[in-house]
Amino acid sequence: MKPQMIRVGLLGFGTVGVGVFRMMRDNADSITRHIGFPATITRIGVHDLSKPREFAFAGLTDDLQSIVNDPEIDVIIEVIGGVSPARELIETALNNKKHVITANKELIAKHGAALMKKAAGHSLDLHFEAAVGGGIPLVQPLKHQLAGNDVLKMMGILNGTTNYILTQMAEKKQSLDVALKEAQELGYAEADPTSDVEGFDAQYKLAILSTIAFSQEIPVDEVYREGIMKITADDIHFARILGYRIKILGIVEAFPEGILARVHPVLLPRRFPLANVHDVYNAVQIRGDFVGDVILSGRGAGSAPTASSVIGDLIDVGRNIRLGGAGNVTMPESDGLPLLPIEKLETAYYLRMLVDDQPKVLGSIATRLGEYGVSLSAMEMRVVSEKDKIGEIVFLTHICNEGMFRKAISVLESEPVVKEICSWIRVES
Ligand code: HSE
């Protein structure tokens, strides 16, 4: 007999868990209308029972196993984060024939394929819309409405914390540390914000989106990654002078010889839509062969937007339970295209360095770069020290090969006229 109510076990009662709790309470009527049954949280599992909480809840326990083993529960919502114990708890829940909704990007990026297989084997739903892009519908549109397209390229701002930090640095001249502290206070950052600022969080998200978009498993460690820790006020200043904004993007492209997936800071021309996505907002631009460009944008982190995605998934699961649906996950078996290393990338670059401020220096640097196929398209310069004759120069290059560009940089590093290579950042043009 079909249940007349969806009973939910919530694992985790932190930022996202509280959002889910509030949305299920405040929007209970519309959730019931959409599913056709009411959905109610019957138990909540937390790590530390003694922690002060915004909401009292009678079914609070620190025995998380007892929730995934509870025969009365139909759906598990996992919002604890991290691989362990989330993975074991989800596996037990699936073995016990419970549908699962998770916001856990690290877990899905690293073990999503195996979990999807297990869920499919039991004809269960495993949904993870909240794992990518907070409140923006991204996973479901890629799985459904856009799935008929061959995805040619996808690029997006996938981390709210770093977009908030870069916006604060550019607009308010704040330091990275101060802006990060604010992002933590606003509930955007991960428990360990290294995951945000070093690009791991965006790497997980890009691996998940790419796996769905290309219908082949994109291993997370084959997604190239750089964070924002080396971005300075000077880079933001020069980028602005040259007509760009600095964002950290996840970009994946399909080439005949393979797929290249990467997360790193990028100079974006100010007129580009993604250059105008600020603060905690995320946005993803998807180019499909038939649909053309689609841009999906919204709040990429925070309690309420992430809860919105979780509840969307819950409604989907609820409908499947009501109608006897057979689950909604598929994982392709084929290996698909190989993953390409970053050295294969063809792009333009921004390059900032300190040099001797004397005749022929510019020419000698341009000649060195030219020997590796790197040709210059724009330049800015300022005197740093008249006394020591030190100048700071910034180049933009034409599109060239990353492997060759890296070689050129290592040669420049040992040129006597080059005092320091301060930074280089890829340019999306
Ligand atoms: N720390 C993440 C971010 C949370 O800032 O985007 C949402 O996944």
List keywords for this structure.
429 residues, alpha/beta, 11-stranded mixed beta sheet, 6-stranded parallel beta sheet, 17 strands, elongated, binds L-homoserine
Please provide a written account of the structure:
The chain is an alpha/beta fold. Helix content is 35%, strand content 27%. The chain has helices at residues 15-26, 28-35, 64-68, 86-95, 105-121, 139-143, 160-172, 176-185, 194-197, 200-214, 233-241, 303-323, 361-371, 402-413; strands spanning 6-11, 39-45, 60-61, 75-78, 99-102, 126-127, 151-157, 224-225, 244-255, 258-269, 281-288, 292-299, 346-356, 376-385, 390-397, 400-401, 418-427. Strands 7, 8, 9, 10, 11, 12, 13, 14, 15, 16 and 17 form an eleven-stranded mixed beta sheet that branches. Strand 9 (244-255) and strand 10 form a beta hairpin. Helix 1 packs across helix 12 (303-323), helix 5 runs parallel beside helix 10 (200-214) and helix 13 (361-371) runs antiparallel to helix 14. It is elongated. The mean pLDDT is 95. It binds L-homoserine. L-homoserine is lined by residues 134, 159-161, 188-190, 196, 201, 300-301.
